[in-house]
Specification:
Radius of gyration: 22 Å
Helix content: 25-40%
Shape: globular
Strand order of the largest sheet: 2-8-7-6-5-3-4
Number of helices: 10
CATH superfamily of the largest domain: Type I PLP-dependent aspartate aminotransferase-like (Major domain)
Distance between the termini: 36 Å
Structural class: alpha/beta
CATH topology of the largest domain: Aspartate Aminotransferase, domain 2
Number of domains: 2
Largest sheet: 7 strands, mixed
Number of strands: 13
CATH architecture of the largest domain: 3-Layer(aba) Sandwich
CATH class of the largest domain: Alpha Beta
Length: about 400
């Protein structure tokens, strides 16, 4: 395990900073009780840590009201809460081909069962969405626009400010999936005209799995799709209307929230811009190290501008799954293979017909030595198994 080169940070960042492990352990040992369910000091202290995390995440997104910061299990649940709480029969949605199944599947269900219409904007040859492509798609019934800030397959960062401005001018709610970008590059609800941002804790925010959420701008309301305990106004049978209780149900993931807080504090201390710059240097190092191999195909990696540290590639004539198996078994390098839960990206690239790609995800704890080992490994696999081998 000590020799593992982990390059699957696009799925889940690993390892976490020591501060995350330490804070989760110490908190659970000393404050592992339900918040707001009793008047004891320990319960109050626990609630205070949750509110600290709300305030920290609100500041991260340049929001104004920490009560509009909602915790969920992950961005998939957060996106479902938003989508299901906004759409009704007859609504129209505009989304894109860079979306994750966390968006595609809820929208498909609304199309199939609930009378919602959905249009998808394709990306260009470099992997970017053109904001002008949204303009002819807006209708009087357009209720929602959803855009994945950065693709988990090809790493391209979309021009969400331009898209958000188009939505604001038309009174359409703009929902951004920041699963890959929160904690890595700026997500600013004001400057980028965002109404709702969905995030997950276990990727670039360096928290544990099982924690994520939404920030919902004031003036946007998401209706209840669930109901349950909040520890507040317990005699009232109707679920609370006020935020954050409006969209939170039951006892929260306390350890996850604390781990998220520790992760964000570590990121702020190190400097998010500094970390992202370093990750992109390593990403470009890998791309430069394999791009001249005639047996390797890179996707949307011609220019590192407006990218995150995610690279998808294939070895010509060789299954991506086999590339991943060899990287793991022979080189002790962990990566991700297949469709990466983003089928429309692969359909547009044409890689759906060859069962997807191999994907590397660069994280803050990767080193030049890790990348150099990956370059050697991928080039050796390409020379051994690639279609151009004589």
């Amino acid at each position: 395990m000590d020799d593992l080169i982990y390059l699957d940070n696009g799925a889940t960042s690993f390892p976490k900073p020591d501060e995350v492990y330490e804070m989760m352990d110490s908190f659970h040992r000393s404050n592992g009780v339900s918040p707001g369910r009793s008047g004891c000091d320990l319960s109050i202290e626990t609630g205070n840590v949750i509110e600290q995390t709300r305030a920290t995440m609100t500041e991260l997104f340049n929001g104004d009201d920490p009560n509009r910061l909602i915790f969920s299990l992950n961005s998939t649940e957060a996106l479902n809460i938003a989508i299901n709480g906004l759409l009704t029969a007859g609504d129209h949605v505009i989304s894109t081909n860079v979306e994750h199944n966390a968006v595609l599947r809820p929208l498909h269900h609304h199309e199939k069962y609930n009378g919602v219409e959905v249009d998808y904007v394709p990306f260009d040859d470099n992997g970017f969405i053109n904001p002008e492509d949204f303009i002819p798609l807006f209708k009087p019934t357009t209720r929602l626009v959803i855009v994945n800030h950065a693709s988990n397959v090809i790493g391209t960062v979309q021009p969400i400010a331009e898209i958000g401005k188009l939505c604001q001018e038309r009174g359409v709610i703009f929902l951004v999936d920041a699963s890959q970008t929160a904690g890595k590059i700026p997500v600013d609800i004001k400057e980028q005209y965002i109404d709702i941002v969905a995030f997950t804790g276990h990727k670039s925010l360096l928290g544990p799995t099982g924690i994520g959420g939404l920030y919902v701008r004031e003036g946007v309301d998401i209706r209840h799709t669930r109901a349950g305990g909040t520890g507040v106004k317990s005699a009232q049978l109707h679920h609370l209307e006020e935020y954050p209780y409006r969209l939170e149900y039951g006892t929260p993931n306390l350890v996850g929230i604390v781990g998220l807080l520790a992760g964000v504090r570590w990121l702020k201390c190190q400097g998010m811009e500094t970390i992202h710059h370093r990750e992109m240097e390593l990403t470009q190092r890998f791309v430069n190290g394999v791009r001249n191999n005639k047996n390797i195909v890179l996707y949307c990696q011609d220019n590192p501008t407006d990218h995150i540290g995610v690279v998808s590639f294939n070895v010509k004539g060789f299954e991506a799954t086999n590339v991943g198996t060899i990287l793991d078994g022979d080189y002790n390098i962990a990566c991700r293979t297949g469709l990466q839960c983003a089928p429309f990206v692969h359909q547009q690239l044409g890689t759906d017909k060859i069962h997807g790609t191999a994907r590397l995800g660069i994280g803050p704890f990767n080193t030049e030595a890790h990348i150099d080992a990956a370059i050697i490994a991928v080039n050796e696999i390409a020379e051994t198994y690639g279609v151009g081998v004589s």
